[in-house]
Amino acid sequence: MNRTFPGHQDRSPLHGITVVVETAGGETWVGRCDDEDAERVILLDADVHRDGEEGSGRDEWLSKAARFGPWARHPRVVLPRRAVRALYRLGDLEAG
């Protein structure tokens, strides 16, 4: 069954999918993709790992996010597309 929700037909194919966004500034975001286009990536219920901060390393942090989901520390984040180095499904990381 193919269901269409009002206002969702023009969204990115990643809409509603948990994604990883790596930025040129050393941040790695994990969150539910609300939309993405040539100008921005919008995440909902996101968390961020910043290179050089105390705590677990990036790979360990991503592994935990893949197993348990991200902590929703940021309800809505808008990232400029020019700062995005990589954008991929969190599920692709689990499979790889």
Report what the structure shows:
The chain is α+β, with helices and mostly antiparallel strands and 96 residues long. The protein has one domain (18-95): SH3 type barrels. The protein has 2 helices and 5 strands, in the order E-E-E-H-E-E-H. The protein has helices at residues 58-68, 90-95, and strands at 18-23, 27-36, 40-50, 74-80, 84-89. A hairpin with a 3-residue loop joins strand 1 and strand 2 (27-36). The chain is globular and about 40 Å long. The N and C termini lie far apart (29 Å). The mean pLDDT is 87.
Name the descriptors:
single chain; 96 residues; alpha+beta; SH3 type barrels; five-stranded antiparallel beta sheet; globular
Layout of strands and helices, then pairs:
Layout: E1 18-23, E2 27-36, E3 40-50, H1 58-68, E4 74-80, E5 84-89, H2 90-95
Antiparallel strand pairs: 1-2, 1-5, 2-3, 3-4
Quick structural gist:
The chain has 96 residues and is α+β, with helices and mostly antiparallel strands.
CATH topology heading? SH3 type barrels
Structural class: alpha+beta
**Residue windows where pLDDT falls under 50 for at least 5 positions:** none
Order of helices and strands: EEEHEEH
Q: Number of folding domains?
A: 1
Q: How would you state the average pLDDT, rounded?
A: 87
Q: Roughly what percent helix?
A: 10-25%
